[in-house]
Design goal:
The chain contains no helices and seven strands. By secondary structure, the protein is an all-beta fold. The strands form two sheets. It has a five-stranded antiparallel sheet, with no helix packed on it. It has a two-stranded antiparallel ribbon with strand order 6-7.
Length: 74
């Protein structure tokens, strides 16, 4: 089943959030370096990520994968 990817960037807070599919109750797992994984409570599936101080990361770059279906490199 295909799901929409929802992106939101808060320039004032310098926070990038993206969510896969509809909003559902979830917990946030701290992955370190101000990156948080959104995990759906009911299924335990990854439903998105939040990256704090996104723009300030500059040339350092971020890379992580969401299973085998979607990868994000910044």
């Amino acid at each position: 089943m295909k799901q929409k990817l929802h992106l939101h960037y808060d320039s004032e807070g310098d926070i990038l959030e993206f969510r896969i599919g509809k909003a559902t109750p979830a917990i946030m797992k701290n992955l370190g370096d101000n990156i948080f994984q959104r995990i759906e409570e009911k299924t335990g599936k990854t439903k998105g990520f939040t990256i704090i101080s996104f723009k300030k990361r500059g040339e350092k770059g971020i890379e992580f994968a969401l299973s085998n279906e979607l990868a994000l490199t910044v």
